[in-house]
Amino acid sequence: MTPVNWAAFTSAAPGLARLAEERFGAFRHHVLATLRTDGSPRTSGLEADFRRGELWLGMMDGSRKALDLRRDPRFSLQANPGDGTDMAGGDVRISGLAYEVGEGQTKAAYVKEVEPPQPFHLFRTGLTEVVRTCVEDDTYLVVQVWKPGEPVRTLRRR
Length: 158
Fold this sequence. Notes:
Blueprint (H helix, E strand, L loop, with lengths): L5 H7 L1 H12 L4 E6 L5 E6 L1 E4 L2 E7 L3 H8 L2 E5 L12 E10 L4 H10 L5 E17 L3 E7 L6 E5 L1
Antiparallel strand pairs: 1-2, 1-5, 3-4, 4-7, 5-6, 6-7, 7-8, 8-9
Helix pairs in contact: 1-2
């Protein structure tokens, strides 16, 4: 499976992409999962940034999560569930590969637009899966799954 950027996902599954952006837009901080050297998971707080057809991950210089991604680009990003148990909009998780953006025009344009604290690591993502889970009519657990090259699959369970 070849990872795709946020624009390709949006084109392939516009409804799910809109719901995912709304869910991530509801709160500032989310949870990023990376892999440690021994293969165990590491979870860290992170701000997700959707702009110019990409999902960007920015992090402090030398942070463990940045070093994890440099070594193994696999990640999973979970939307902040918010206060309480309401979870309006459902639960959204994005998985894929993160590619570090080195110094150059792309990073300079990002810095000009976002003005992040310096120095920092910037990663562009390639998506391999987007999953949304919600409860429908207080009766059904609904899971929507998208993968590159496939339509959105919707599973409903009682």
